[in-house]
Design goal:
Elements lengths: L16 E5 L4 E9 L2 E8 L13 E14 L4 E5 L3 E4 L6 E4 L4 E8 L11
Antiparallel strand pairs: 1-2, 2-3, 3-8, 4-5, 4-6, 4-7, 4-8
Protein name: DHCW motif cupin fold protein
Organism: Aquipluma nitroreducens
Length: about 120
């Protein structure tokens, strides 16, 4: 799917926050849903540990603070303000952990769907 998204601005102050409990701590999401595209401002409170391993693809940009993206295989990626990670659906089982809290911009959607390489 390749949706045509007209030019628009997002005033995050008008987007309501939804609360999502972690294993510990809480995540607050502000979500804009467009055809095939989801854009979120996400804040994790101090001591947040995600309550699940995620296999979805994301582009995650750290706006403030720092966090660890833990992989189920034991790898850890440390991200601080100004850093970004990118992963396609089904290519990682990961979860977020933060000691002091963090604010993230997270983008995901159809463009991150896993596609088998086709041999010709």
């Amino acid at each position: 799917m390749n949706p045509n998204i007209p030019f628009q601005t997002i005033d995050w102050s008008t987007i309501p926050k939804t609360e999502h409990k972690g294993e510990t701590g809480t995540a607050f999401w502000q979500t804009v849903q467009l055809p095939g595209l989801r854009i979120r401002l996400v804040e994790y409170t101090a001591g947040y540990v995600a309550d699940h391993w995620c296999r979805n693809g994301h582009i995650v940009h750290c706006l403030e603070g720092e966090f660890v993206s833990e992989s189920e295989d034991g790898n850890h990626s440390y991200l601080t303000s100004g850093m970004t990670y990118v992963v396609t659906d089904e290519l990682s089982s990961h979860r977020s952990v933060t000691k002091n809290g963090v604010k993230l911009l997270i983008i995901d959607g159809d463009f991150l769907k896993f596609q088998e390489e086709r041999l010709s």
